[in-house]
Write a structure and sequence with these properties.
Distance between the termini: 47 Å
CATH architecture: Alpha-Beta Complex
Number of helices: 6
Order of helices and strands: HEHEHEEHHHEE
Helix content: 25-40%
CATH superfamily: Ribosomal protein L13
Radius of gyration: 17 Å
Strand content: 15-25%
Strand order of the largest sheet: 5-2-1-6
CATH class: Alpha Beta
Shape: globular
Largest sheet: 4 strands, parallel
CATH topology: Ribosomal Protein L13p, Chain: A
Structural class: alpha/beta
Number of domains: 1
């Protein structure tokens, strides 16, 4: 008796597209479920060294919420590689200017820090409003995480 072992052939044709509405959902909990779909861990044939995940489209990123003290205390930092080049931006300012980046950074932090993780991150599409240009891919509406109103 042999064990089935996925080879990676034909993975791109089998990928699905999912649409997730971020309105009223906590950013961190939403990011964990999105990362799970991007990595393919929801797939029964998941293999650690293959990109088994599906595409995820996040709409209404502007309407996502932060729980607890995250909205006031969280800070994004990056360095320009020049002396004294440490730059900080609060999550409130980043969310006001670019709400897509907040969700992208949250999901990327939960993906592997390898070439495979970068390939997984490319399958994430985030939009601040309800409109997205991916209707040709016929994405499936999914309710990964129940919204705050449904609880």
């Amino acid at each position: 008796m042999s064990t089935h072992f996925p080879s990676g052939v034909g993975l791109a044709e089998k990928r699905k597209w999912f649409v997730v509405d971020a309105a009223g959902r906590p950013v961190g909990r939403l990011a964990t479920e999105i990362a799970r779909v991007l990595t393919g861990k929801n797939n029964p044939q998941w293999t650690p060294f293959l990109d088994m995940g599906d595409y995820v489209i996040v709409v209404n990123a502007r309407k996502a919420v932060f729980k607890g003290s995250r909205a006031t205390q969280k800070v994004y930092r990056h360095h320009t590689r020049y002396p004294g080049g440490l730059r900080e931006i609060s999550v409130q300012d980043q969310f006001a200017k670019h709400p897509e980046r907040v969700i992208e950074l949250a999901v990327r932090g939960m993906l592997p820090k390898t070439k495979l993780g970068k390939a997984m991150a490319k399958k994430l599409k985030v939009y601040a409003d309800a409109n997205h240009p991916h209707t040709a891919q016929r994405p499936e509406e999914t309710n990964i995480l129940p919204s705050a109103e449904q609880k």
